[in-house]
Amino acid sequence: MVSQSAPTASLATNPAGQSTALVMSTVAFTVCFAVWTIFSIIGLQIKKDLGLNETQFGLLIGTPILTGSLSRLLLGIWTDQYGGRLVYTAVMVAAAIATWLLTLAYSYETFLLAALGVGIAGGSFAVGVAYVSKWYPKEKQGTALGVFGMGNVGAAVTKFIAPFVMVAFGWEMVAKVWAIVMLIMAIAFYLFTKDDPALAERKRMGVKPEPLLAQLAPLAKLQVWRFSLYYFFVFGAFVALALWLPRYYMGVYGLDVKTAGMLGAAYSIPASLFRAYGGVLSDKYGARRVMYWTFIVSVICTFLLSYPATDYTVRGITGPITFTIAIGFVPFTVIAFVLGFFMSLGKAAVYKHIPVYYPNHVGAVGGVVGLIGGLGGFVLPIAFGALNDIIGVWTSCFMLLFILVAIALTWMHFAILRMERRKHPALRGPQDLPELAEGGKPAAVPDTSQSVPAGIRAKEA
């Protein structure tokens, strides 16, 4: 396997290659994400045309997410083996063809089949992460990957533009335009990018790619799956809400499709653009701290959003007193904005961990983390629809998210405590109530300033 020193040395002498790789990858991911979430808008018209129930609608908008998720592991490994330039281009060409063929669907089953093909666009994330990370040193990878992740704004692009195109020309025109743009982007990406430094060095030295089984070896570690759970919430729930919010706004607040799409974009934009800021914060303060911020605020937001509109009657002195507790339109939108903002920070923080812990297996580890996160975008919309059908409460989707993020926060906290105590035994001793020590005299608190590295609290778990 080629050492990391050779490619890293070439990074400083090729800043133009860094910038081109990052810009082109980010723009390409934006286009891919716009295609990947296309059913969040055209699915509303298809639902009406086919008379779908909520569960069927959830399955329809979640099916592209399934393909994009399942493909990420293999695409990430291929990127490590054959380079992001070739794999990224192939993904976009395949997704463009599938999106155009979507216009030939005529029944619910054929729409589901077409949606599987459209979902290939979502696999581009694993390709981009593996490709971009190889252009930057470790201390800058958080920021670079955060900028790349801003491509999530493609969901907002679809919500802003697609409703107007669909109302004016029909949903078929949306699919055709998105397919053409994707194909143009694929051509531009291939023409203007180069092989990453690691691949170029490997080709120069004639070294063969690492075998598939060796690439998969890190997946046996529980830590990888813990990162995957984090991403299941910060990314999977983001995608699910990006797909579901237009429907939620229409059902709860009675908005039309254009307005609902615009408000859905108001959630998607901060959850995308601020991802770059999450990368900066992860580089500066550590990904662990950013994850704590993300999960704590998300627990609060999802708890508030999960409370259903409720009518209360109190037996007053002079008679019944009736009042209602409900989250109004404006408070809901504000809380959703805050939730999206902190999700964006968390998305960057999760992927800051990967090239630090697994520098030689970014494609495989990043692929499986992205796979699990993407599955969240597939499973959760279906769950949202099923909960609506079964429970009949609109806020049930946020009840589910509250449980999910509470589990993630708890697992992360206890995993960090266990890891710190294992690495630094001095931390296991009593440190809070020294006055309870034997003899009633204050016990000496162990000085861990020398045994614990200065950056332990900022270092990623």
What does this structure look like?
The protein has a single domain, classed as MFS general substrate transporter like domains (Growth Hormone, Chain: A), CATH 1.20.1250.20. Helices cover 73% and strands 3% of the residues. It contains 20 helices and two strands. Helix 5 packs antiparallel against helix 6 and helix 16 crosses helix 18. The radius of gyration is 24 Å and the shape is globular. It starts with a helix and ends in a 38-residue tail after the last helix. The N terminus and C terminus are likely disordered.
Question: For the record, what is the CATH homologous superfamily label?
Answer: MFS general substrate transporter like domains
- Share of helix among residues? over 70%
Tally of alpha and pi helices: 20
Task: Find the structural class using helix and strand composition.
Answer: mainly alpha
Low-pLDDT runs = 1-13, 430-443, 445-461
* Arrangement of strands in the largest sheet: 1-2
Q: How would you characterize the largest beta sheet? A: 2 strands, antiparallel
Shape: globular
List keywords for this structure.
single chain, 461 residues, mainly alpha, Growth Hormone, Chain: A, two-stranded antiparallel sheet, 20 helices, 3% strand, globular, disordered N terminus
